[in-house]
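Hello Y.,

Per our agreement to keep a running log of every chain we model this quarter, I'm adding this entry. I've kept the format consistent with earlier entries: sequence first, then predicted structure.
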Amino acid sequence: MRSDYGPNKVSLRLAFRPFVDMFQFRGRSTRTEVLSFWLLGLLSSLIYFLYSYPPSAFERVIESIWFVLWNWPWIPLLVRRLHDQSRSGRWAALPLIAVTLFALNWWFAPAGNDLDMNLAPGPINLHRTIGWSPLTITSSIVFVAIIIANFAFYLLPGTGGANRFGPDPRLDAQPALALAET
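Predicted structure for the entry above:
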């Protein structure tokens, strides 16, 4: 039985749930929770960047803290989405390959004037321009494929009913409990 309110509707409660469950790697999450959290992040980032441009050094530090606080909840959320699809949470390590490819390109790609790479962690701003090489081309293709796969994991539908990771989060548990009590 589907609920008319709660897990099936975009709401503030769902938008903040990844912050509440930011260390919860067990259980399942819905696509609606992902959409709510994404919309919350989009709105808050828009407000932040409208009022802090151009950023001062202090605002760059705040931006770094915001980056960590905003990006960490996506990891357990992805693990719970994978659980909803009856997949192992180990697939959530896939973006680490993308980070590794970025680092390989940063340090080992030949210098050139084809591709700008910027890394701005807080008050530090690193910039390097690299040239196209077999390493750069291959790692760029793999990087894009990983980003697309990661995006797909967030949006693929979950399995219906309970699975080995828990009950279906889209089902309303209240009527089931009321039926069990009678």
